[in-house]
Amino acid sequence: MDSLTQIVLGAAAGEAIIGKKVGNKAMLWGAIAGTIPDLDVMAKLFFDPVTANEMHRGFSHSILFSLLAAPILGWIVAKIYRNKEADWKDWTKLMFLGLFTHPLLDAFTTWGTQLFWPVTYKVSFKNIFVVDPLYTLPFLICVIMAMCYRRTNPRRSKVNTLGLVISSAYMVLTLVFKWITYEVFRTNLEDQQIAYKEIQTKPTPLNSVLWSANIETDTSFLIGYYSLLQKDKTVTFTEFPKNHEVLGHLQEDPLITRLIELTEGWYTIEQKNGKTYFNDLRFGLLGMPPDADTFVFSYELYDKNGVLQARETKKDMKDAGPLLKKLFARVVGLEK
User: Fold this and answer.
1) For residues 308 and 257, what is the distance between their CA atoms, to the nearest angstrom?
2) What residues contact 315, with CB distance under 8 A and at least 6 apart?
3) Is the four-CA dihedral 282, 136, 39, 45 of positive or negative sign?
4) pLDDT < 50 regions, the chain
Protein backbone atom coordinates (compact mmCIF):
# COMPACT_ATOMS: atom_id res chain seq x y z
CA MET A 1 0.00 0.00 0.00
CA ASP A 2 1.02 3.65 -0.18
CA SER A 3 3.21 5.21 2.50
CA LEU A 4 0.41 7.19 4.18
CA THR A 5 -1.72 4.07 4.64
CA GLN A 6 1.21 2.12 6.09
CA ILE A 7 2.00 4.98 8.49
CA VAL A 8 -1.62 5.11 9.67
CA LEU A 9 -1.81 1.34 10.09
CA GLY A 10 1.49 1.26 11.98
CA ALA A 11 0.33 4.08 14.25
CA ALA A 12 -2.96 2.32 14.99
CA ALA A 13 -1.15 -0.95 15.68
CA GLY A 14 1.26 0.80 18.06
CA GLU A 15 -1.62 2.44 19.89
CA ALA A 16 -3.41 -0.90 20.23
CA ILE A 17 -0.35 -2.51 21.81
CA ILE A 18 0.95 0.01 24.36
CA GLY A 19 -0.97 3.23 23.78
CA LYS A 20 -2.27 3.20 27.35
CA LYS A 21 1.30 3.07 28.66
CA VAL A 22 3.12 5.59 26.47
CA GLY A 23 0.42 7.61 24.69
CA ASN A 24 1.35 9.17 21.36
CA LYS A 25 4.84 7.66 21.50
CA ALA A 26 3.20 4.36 20.61
CA MET A 27 1.68 5.89 17.50
CA LEU A 28 4.98 7.55 16.56
CA TRP A 29 7.05 4.39 16.74
CA GLY A 30 4.30 2.26 15.26
CA ALA A 31 4.22 4.62 12.28
CA ILE A 32 8.02 4.43 11.95
CA ALA A 33 7.93 0.64 12.09
CA GLY A 34 5.20 0.63 9.45
CA THR A 35 7.45 2.39 6.95
CA ILE A 36 10.65 0.38 7.48
CA PRO A 37 9.85 -2.55 5.13
CA ASP A 38 9.56 -0.17 2.17
CA LEU A 39 13.16 0.94 2.57
CA ASP A 40 13.85 -1.83 0.05
CA VAL A 41 12.93 0.69 -2.67
CA MET A 42 16.42 2.12 -2.14
CA ALA A 43 17.67 -0.91 -4.07
CA LYS A 44 16.97 1.13 -7.22
CA LEU A 45 19.94 3.33 -6.26
CA PHE A 46 22.35 0.40 -6.40
CA PHE A 47 20.90 -2.19 -8.77
CA ASP A 48 19.45 -2.43 -12.25
CA PRO A 49 15.64 -2.09 -12.60
CA VAL A 50 14.97 -5.83 -12.92
CA THR A 51 17.04 -6.74 -9.85
CA ALA A 52 15.47 -3.89 -7.84
CA ASN A 53 11.96 -5.07 -8.73
CA GLU A 54 12.89 -8.63 -7.82
CA MET A 55 14.04 -7.42 -4.41
CA HIS A 56 10.98 -5.22 -3.78
CA ARG A 57 8.64 -6.74 -1.22
CA GLY A 58 11.09 -9.55 -0.62
CA PHE A 59 13.06 -10.12 2.58
CA SER A 60 12.02 -6.84 4.23
CA HIS A 61 8.37 -7.85 3.78
CA SER A 62 8.73 -11.31 5.28
CA ILE A 63 7.69 -12.83 8.59
CA LEU A 64 11.35 -13.68 9.18
CA PHE A 65 12.41 -10.02 8.86
CA SER A 66 9.73 -8.93 11.34
CA LEU A 67 10.86 -11.57 13.83
CA LEU A 68 14.54 -10.62 13.51
CA ALA A 69 14.17 -6.83 13.42
CA ALA A 70 11.51 -6.38 16.11
CA PRO A 71 13.64 -7.25 19.17
CA ILE A 72 16.56 -5.15 17.89
CA LEU A 73 14.38 -2.10 17.24
CA GLY A 74 12.51 -2.70 20.49
CA TRP A 75 15.81 -2.68 22.41
CA ILE A 76 16.88 0.58 20.74
CA VAL A 77 13.61 2.35 21.61
CA ALA A 78 13.67 0.98 25.15
CA LYS A 79 17.15 2.44 25.58
CA ILE A 80 15.99 5.82 24.30
CA TYR A 81 13.26 6.04 26.93
CA ARG A 82 15.20 4.06 29.58
CA ASN A 83 12.18 1.82 30.25
CA LYS A 84 10.35 4.57 32.12
CA GLU A 85 6.90 3.67 30.83
CA ALA A 86 7.34 0.50 28.79
CA ASP A 87 10.02 -2.19 28.81
CA TRP A 88 11.89 -3.97 26.04
CA LYS A 89 9.17 -6.60 25.65
CA ASP A 90 6.50 -3.94 25.16
CA TRP A 91 8.49 -2.12 22.49
CA THR A 92 9.37 -5.41 20.78
CA LYS A 93 5.69 -6.33 20.52
CA LEU A 94 4.93 -2.90 19.10
CA MET A 95 7.74 -3.11 16.57
CA PHE A 96 6.77 -6.59 15.45
CA LEU A 97 3.16 -5.60 14.87
CA GLY A 98 4.19 -2.39 13.09
CA LEU A 99 6.62 -4.29 10.86
CA PHE A 100 4.37 -7.26 10.15
CA THR A 101 1.12 -5.42 9.43
CA HIS A 102 2.91 -3.67 6.57
CA PRO A 103 3.56 -6.78 4.42
CA LEU A 104 0.30 -8.30 5.60
CA LEU A 105 -1.58 -5.35 4.11
CA ASP A 106 0.58 -5.42 0.97
CA ALA A 107 -0.40 -9.06 0.46
CA PHE A 108 -3.87 -7.88 -0.55
CA THR A 109 -2.48 -5.77 -3.43
CA THR A 110 -1.50 -6.77 -6.96
CA TRP A 111 2.26 -6.84 -6.38
CA GLY A 112 2.00 -9.11 -3.35
CA THR A 113 4.70 -9.93 -0.81
CA GLN A 114 7.15 -12.71 -0.08
CA LEU A 115 5.74 -13.31 3.39
CA PHE A 116 7.47 -16.67 3.60
CA TRP A 117 10.89 -15.55 2.32
CA PRO A 118 13.25 -17.22 1.35
CA VAL A 119 10.43 -19.00 -0.48
CA THR A 120 10.03 -16.95 -3.67
CA TYR A 121 6.23 -17.29 -3.83
CA LYS A 122 4.45 -13.95 -3.40
CA VAL A 123 1.16 -13.85 -1.51
CA SER A 124 -1.16 -11.63 -3.57
CA PHE A 125 -4.94 -11.55 -3.15
CA LYS A 126 -5.34 -8.62 -5.59
CA ASN A 127 -8.43 -7.18 -3.93
CA ILE A 128 -7.33 -3.62 -3.14
CA PHE A 129 -5.38 -0.99 -5.05
CA VAL A 130 -2.16 0.36 -3.53
CA VAL A 131 -3.87 3.74 -3.04
CA ASP A 132 -7.50 3.53 -1.93
CA PRO A 133 -8.96 6.62 -0.21
CA LEU A 134 -11.97 4.67 1.07
CA TYR A 135 -9.60 2.48 3.06
CA THR A 136 -7.19 5.17 4.22
CA LEU A 137 -9.27 8.27 5.02
CA PRO A 138 -11.66 6.82 7.67
CA PHE A 139 -8.67 5.09 9.23
CA LEU A 140 -6.66 8.34 9.25
CA ILE A 141 -9.53 10.30 10.81
CA CYS A 142 -9.88 7.79 13.64
CA VAL A 143 -6.14 7.82 14.38
CA ILE A 144 -6.05 11.64 14.48
CA MET A 145 -9.07 11.71 16.76
CA ALA A 146 -7.48 9.15 19.07
CA MET A 147 -4.34 11.29 19.32
CA CYS A 148 -6.42 14.13 20.75
CA TYR A 149 -7.40 12.14 23.85
CA ARG A 150 -5.18 11.52 26.86
CA ARG A 151 -3.70 8.03 26.96
CA THR A 152 -5.82 7.17 30.02
CA ASN A 153 -9.08 8.25 28.40
CA PRO A 154 -11.09 5.14 27.40
CA ARG A 155 -12.39 6.96 24.32
CA ARG A 156 -8.87 6.94 22.87
CA SER A 157 -8.79 3.16 22.66
CA LYS A 158 -12.36 2.98 21.39
CA VAL A 159 -11.75 5.43 18.55
CA ASN A 160 -8.53 3.68 17.54
CA THR A 161 -10.31 0.32 17.59
CA LEU A 162 -13.10 1.80 15.50
CA GLY A 163 -10.56 2.73 12.83
CA LEU A 164 -9.18 -0.80 12.81
CA VAL A 165 -12.69 -2.27 12.57
CA ILE A 166 -13.75 0.03 9.72
CA SER A 167 -10.60 -0.66 7.70
CA SER A 168 -10.85 -4.41 8.26
CA ALA A 169 -14.54 -4.42 7.29
CA TYR A 170 -13.74 -2.52 4.11
CA MET A 171 -11.00 -5.03 3.29
CA VAL A 172 -13.49 -7.89 3.65
CA LEU A 173 -15.94 -5.97 1.46
CA THR A 174 -13.35 -5.70 -1.33
CA LEU A 175 -12.99 -9.48 -1.22
CA VAL A 176 -16.74 -9.76 -1.73
CA PHE A 177 -16.50 -7.30 -4.65
CA LYS A 178 -13.71 -9.38 -6.13
CA TRP A 179 -15.86 -12.52 -6.04
CA ILE A 180 -18.86 -10.73 -7.59
CA THR A 181 -16.86 -9.20 -10.43
CA TYR A 182 -14.96 -12.44 -11.07
CA GLU A 183 -18.27 -14.17 -11.72
CA VAL A 184 -19.31 -11.39 -14.13
CA PHE A 185 -16.07 -11.76 -16.11
CA ARG A 186 -16.32 -15.54 -16.14
CA THR A 187 -19.93 -15.45 -17.32
CA ASN A 188 -19.06 -13.01 -20.11
CA LEU A 189 -16.26 -15.25 -21.34
CA GLU A 190 -18.64 -18.20 -21.46
CA ASP A 191 -21.42 -16.20 -23.16
CA GLN A 192 -18.97 -14.87 -25.75
CA GLN A 193 -17.59 -18.41 -26.24
CA ILE A 194 -14.02 -17.34 -25.48
CA ALA A 195 -11.72 -20.20 -24.57
CA TYR A 196 -9.32 -19.16 -21.83
CA LYS A 197 -6.68 -20.61 -19.54
CA GLU A 198 -6.73 -18.30 -16.53
CA ILE A 199 -8.42 -15.17 -15.15
CA GLN A 200 -6.88 -12.61 -12.82
CA THR A 201 -9.02 -9.78 -11.46
CA LYS A 202 -8.04 -6.61 -9.60
CA PRO A 203 -9.49 -3.18 -8.74
CA THR A 204 -8.53 -0.16 -10.81
CA PRO A 205 -6.72 2.88 -9.31
CA LEU A 206 -8.18 4.70 -6.30
CA ASN A 207 -11.35 2.62 -5.92
CA SER A 208 -12.88 -0.81 -5.42
CA VAL A 209 -15.90 -0.30 -7.69
CA LEU A 210 -14.34 -0.58 -11.16
CA TRP A 211 -12.52 -3.89 -11.69
CA SER A 212 -10.31 -5.14 -14.48
CA ALA A 213 -9.60 -8.68 -15.60
CA ASN A 214 -6.57 -10.15 -17.33
CA ILE A 215 -7.47 -13.28 -19.27
CA GLU A 216 -4.94 -15.62 -20.82
CA THR A 217 -5.75 -17.48 -24.05
CA ASP A 218 -3.49 -19.65 -26.19
CA THR A 219 -2.09 -16.81 -28.30
CA SER A 220 -3.04 -13.59 -26.52
CA PHE A 221 -4.17 -11.82 -23.37
CA LEU A 222 -7.53 -10.10 -23.02
CA ILE A 223 -8.25 -7.14 -20.74
CA GLY A 224 -11.78 -6.23 -19.70
CA TYR A 225 -13.43 -3.80 -17.27
CA TYR A 226 -16.59 -4.00 -15.21
CA SER A 227 -18.06 -1.49 -12.75
CA LEU A 228 -20.37 -2.56 -9.96
CA LEU A 229 -22.45 0.53 -10.81
CA GLN A 230 -23.02 -0.17 -14.50
CA LYS A 231 -26.48 -1.48 -15.42
CA ASP A 232 -25.42 -3.64 -18.34
CA LYS A 233 -23.21 -6.55 -17.27
CA THR A 234 -21.77 -7.03 -20.75
CA VAL A 235 -17.97 -6.77 -20.80
CA THR A 236 -15.94 -5.77 -23.84
CA PHE A 237 -12.51 -7.37 -24.01
CA THR A 238 -9.46 -5.82 -25.66
CA GLU A 239 -6.95 -8.26 -27.13
CA PHE A 240 -3.16 -8.04 -26.83
CA PRO A 241 -1.20 -10.71 -28.76
CA LYS A 242 1.47 -12.47 -26.72
CA ASN A 243 4.08 -12.27 -29.51
CA HIS A 244 6.41 -14.43 -27.42
CA GLU A 245 7.91 -15.88 -30.59
CA VAL A 246 9.39 -12.46 -31.42
CA LEU A 247 12.07 -13.08 -28.81
CA GLY A 248 13.46 -16.00 -30.81
CA HIS A 249 16.68 -17.31 -29.30
CA LEU A 250 16.50 -14.62 -26.60
CA GLN A 251 13.88 -16.69 -24.80
CA GLU A 252 16.77 -18.68 -23.35
CA ASP A 253 18.59 -15.58 -22.10
CA PRO A 254 18.86 -15.45 -18.27
CA LEU A 255 17.42 -11.93 -18.22
CA ILE A 256 14.29 -13.03 -20.09
CA THR A 257 13.92 -15.98 -17.72
CA ARG A 258 14.05 -13.60 -14.77
CA LEU A 259 11.52 -11.24 -16.34
CA ILE A 260 9.14 -14.11 -17.05
CA GLU A 261 9.44 -15.23 -13.44
CA LEU A 262 8.96 -11.64 -12.20
CA THR A 263 5.79 -11.21 -14.25
CA GLU A 264 4.57 -14.72 -13.40
CA GLY A 265 4.12 -15.36 -17.11
CA TRP A 266 1.75 -12.43 -17.68
CA TYR A 267 3.69 -10.60 -20.38
CA THR A 268 3.62 -9.61 -24.02
CA ILE A 269 6.41 -8.71 -26.42
CA GLU A 270 5.98 -5.57 -28.49
CA GLN A 271 8.07 -3.97 -31.21
CA LYS A 272 7.73 -0.23 -31.77
CA ASN A 273 10.00 2.18 -33.67
CA GLY A 274 12.67 -0.47 -34.05
CA LYS A 275 12.72 -1.23 -30.32
CA THR A 276 11.59 -4.32 -28.42
CA TYR A 277 9.52 -4.05 -25.24
CA PHE A 278 8.70 -6.59 -22.55
CA ASN A 279 5.29 -5.62 -21.11
CA ASP A 280 4.22 -6.67 -17.61
CA LEU A 281 0.44 -7.16 -17.75
CA ARG A 282 -0.18 -7.64 -14.02
CA PHE A 283 -0.64 -3.93 -13.34
CA GLY A 284 -2.70 -3.16 -16.40
CA LEU A 285 -2.69 -0.26 -18.80
CA LEU A 286 -1.71 3.36 -18.31
CA GLY A 287 -5.18 4.58 -19.14
CA MET A 288 -8.43 3.03 -20.33
CA PRO A 289 -9.12 1.12 -23.56
CA PRO A 290 -9.63 1.66 -26.41
CA ASP A 291 -7.47 4.78 -26.18
CA ALA A 292 -4.71 3.23 -24.05
CA ASP A 293 -2.11 0.78 -25.33
CA THR A 294 0.78 1.48 -22.94
CA PHE A 295 1.30 -0.72 -19.90
CA VAL A 296 2.10 0.60 -16.42
CA PHE A 297 5.21 -1.59 -16.25
CA SER A 298 7.20 -2.12 -19.43
CA TYR A 299 10.87 -2.83 -20.07
CA GLU A 300 12.82 -1.83 -23.14
CA LEU A 301 15.19 -4.61 -24.15
CA TYR A 302 18.52 -3.55 -25.63
CA ASP A 303 22.01 -4.86 -26.26
CA LYS A 304 25.01 -3.49 -24.38
CA ASN A 305 28.40 -4.92 -25.29
CA GLY A 306 26.80 -8.17 -26.37
CA VAL A 307 24.78 -8.54 -23.17
CA LEU A 308 20.98 -8.24 -23.11
CA GLN A 309 19.81 -5.42 -20.80
CA ALA A 310 16.43 -4.05 -19.71
CA ARG A 311 15.34 -0.64 -18.54
CA GLU A 312 11.93 0.53 -17.37
CA THR A 313 10.15 2.80 -19.80
CA LYS A 314 9.36 6.25 -18.47
CA LYS A 315 5.73 6.95 -17.62
CA ASP A 316 4.30 10.06 -19.24
CA MET A 317 1.94 11.56 -16.65
CA LYS A 318 1.03 14.71 -18.59
CA ASP A 319 -2.34 13.22 -19.47
CA ALA A 320 -3.14 12.22 -15.88
CA GLY A 321 -6.09 14.65 -15.66
CA PRO A 322 -8.01 13.29 -18.67
CA LEU A 323 -7.18 9.73 -17.59
CA LEU A 324 -8.68 10.30 -14.14
CA LYS A 325 -11.82 11.78 -15.72
CA LYS A 326 -12.22 8.74 -17.94
CA LEU A 327 -11.56 6.46 -14.98
CA PHE A 328 -14.26 8.20 -12.96
CA ALA A 329 -16.71 7.88 -15.86
CA ARG A 330 -16.03 4.16 -15.97
CA VAL A 331 -16.34 3.81 -12.20
CA VAL A 332 -19.84 5.31 -12.13
CA GLY A 333 -20.87 3.27 -15.17
CA LEU A 334 -21.22 6.17 -17.62
CA GLU A 335 -18.93 4.49 -20.14
CA LYS A 336 -18.17 0.90 -21.13
Assistant:
1) 12
2) 286, 296
3) positive
4) none
